[in-house]
Each structure stands twice: as C-alpha cells, then as structure tokens.
Write a structure and sequence with these properties.
The protein is of the alpha/beta class. Helix content is 27%, strand content 17%. The structure holds S-adenosylmethionine (SAM). S-adenosylmethionine (SAM) binds at residues 43-45, 65-68, 71, 96-98, 116-119, 192-195.
C-alpha cells in the first residue's frame, strides 16, 4: 500500500477514528451514542464492504480495525461517502489484530466478528500469522458470548479448508458454508475490494459462519500447527528414481 499523505491528518481530524484504542478497552459500547448490538470487522482494508454494511444497518454499532493508516484513510472516506461525515454507528481504529486483547475485553461484548479476505500466509512457517489460526480464534472467542459468530470470507482454497480445523479445535461450530458465495444466493453480501478483484479473476469466493460453542477449551495454541512439519512426499512413479514403486 503506497503512502497517502492525506490519510493520517484526515484520521487525526475525524471524531470517529479512535486515536488511542487501548484507552477504550472494556468501554467500547459507551463510545457510541446509542446502545446497539456491537460488531467488529478485522482487517477492514479500504472499507468498501464496511461502508455498505454500516449504511445498511443503522441499528448495529461497528468497530472496523486495520493495521495500516493508509487503508484506514480510504475506509474513512468510503464510510463518510456512504453514511455522511458523522455516522452514529461507526468507529475506526488502527491496531494489530495479533494483539487484539490489548484494545478489547470480554466486557465489550462483541456479538459478531467479520474477517474478509485476510492474508492466507501459505507457508507453514507463517501458519500462526493466519487470522483464523486458533491462536487468534482464542482471542476472538474470549470477546464473544456463547452463540457469538464469526463471518469469514476468502478466495483461498487452502486457507478455507484448514480453517475448518482451526474453528473446530478452537470451539466454534459451523452454521453455514459455501464454496461459491456468489452462486449460493446468500444476501445481503457486502462485496469488498478484494472480493471484487478475485471475482473479476474468476475465483469463486469461499464463505462461512461459525458460532462459538459453550465447551471449555484449555489447549494452549501459541505454538500449535495443524500442518505437518514434514508433509508426506508424493510417491514416485515406478522407474522415476531408478527403483520400482512399492506394491
Ligand atoms: C487482503 S486485505 C483485505 C481487505 C478487505 N477486508 C477486503 O476484503 O478487501 C487484508 C487487510 O488486513 C490488514 N491486516 C493484515 N494483518 C493485520 C493485522 N495483524 N492487524 C490489523 N490489520 C491487518 C491489512 O492491512 C489489509 O488491509
């Protein structure tokens, strides 16, 4: 993302872009003018889907988080264009989702979390950086009540597949899933900038909703891998390495 000189000053001047989110930890609900269900978007990017969702749902309070002030600048502009310069139900914050519990606490009672097109981190050595890795899911879990939901979308087949395991071990049950969101008829679907791009490339969008269960999870996932360190080598065809393949 290229540097946008205007983004930081615009965020600094915007009353609904929170400068020190850690100071609102445990008090996010009081930061909105109206009490309402509280939903969180993680890695909102330029906020194309975020803006449409916020405009469509005035009865829900949203906090959209991203690590990059440059994309948050775009998100701010997109939300202002869709909802006006003073949306009553939107807050933006710059934060690292890997340290989400520095800025949010269980008392914030997040009812739903959106994860749209997070980086797939395809290499095993980066597995723990995936935002659906159980190390992360356990953070989200501590913010959600039993029955609270995570709405996840991705273009990436492997991330979608392995995330099934991640959600299961972290105490989430599947509510609904599709491997082709746009063919599924699911509505309303708020299309993000990455969703638009991948769809234009002909890549089907994978999506699902998972619900937090009541089960107690004690496992420490800090160093946990779902993928084997040494994946089994594909069997060589007979003669390929000078030997016959085993029967
Ligand atoms: C691939 S983009 C997706 C943006 C948008 N959700 C969409 O669907 O188009 C991923 C976004 O997540 C943000 N991000 C990645 N890792 C993050 C982290 N650890 N904490 C906060 N934001 C992060 C990036 O800055 C980027 O804007």
């Amino acid at each position: 993302m290229r540097l946008k000189k205007w983004a930081r000053p615009e965020l600094a001047a915007c009353p609904w872009a929170v400068d020190e989110p850690e100071k609102l930890r445990g008090h996010w609900r009081e930061a909105f003018p109206r009490e309402a269900p509280f939903h969180l978007e993680l890695g909102c990017g330029k906020g194309v889907a975020t803006a449409a969702m916020i405009a469509d749902n005035p009865g829900v309070n949203y906090l959209a988080i991203d690590i990059s002030p440059d994309v948050l600048g775009d998100a701010r502009r997109n939300i202002a264009a869709a909802c006006g310069e003073d949306p009553h139900n939107a807050l933006l914050a710059r934060a690292n989702i890997e340290n989400l519990l520095w800025i949010l606490a269980p008392e914030d009672r997040v009812e739903r979390i959106y994860l749209r097109f997070c980086n797939p981190w395809p290499r095993r050595c980066h597995e723990k950086r995936r935002l659906t890795h159980p190390r992360q899911l356990m953070q989200y879990r501590s913010l959600l009540p039993v029955g609270g939901e995570i709405w996840f979308k991705t273009d990436d087949d492997h991330l979608f597949e392995i995330s099934q395991t991640y959600f299961q071990v972290a105490g989430f049950e599947p509510v609904w899933q599709t491997e082709d969101l746009h063919a599924s008829g699911f509505a309303p679907n708020y299309v993000s900038e990455h969703e638009r791009m991948f769809t234009a490339q002909g890549i089907p969008i994978k999506a699902g909703i998972w619900r937090r269960t009541a089960e107690e999870i004690r496992e420490d996932f800090t160093r946990w891998h779902a993928e084997p360190a040494h994946p089994p080598r594909p069997r060589r065809a007979a003669g390929e390495d000078g030997r016959s393949a085993p029967d």
